[in-house]
Amino acid sequence: MRQATRGQHYALFICSLALVIAAGLAFSGHEVTASIIGGLDLIGLAAVFIAGRVFVRSSGEAAPEASE
Fold it and tell me: What is the pTM of this model?
């Protein structure tokens, strides 16, 4: 397995885990904590994708193919 693919699988697992924890907290009455964890998780995920695209464009590398 390529390193980039493995990293994407780890990121998916970590983000999913954070959202499950946020949902569990929300259902147990800790809405504020759940919204902070869920919001930071989504903001962080979006920032990583945006930074990755900017890095690929600035370094002159070819963009990764979606079919990989």
Answer: 0.65
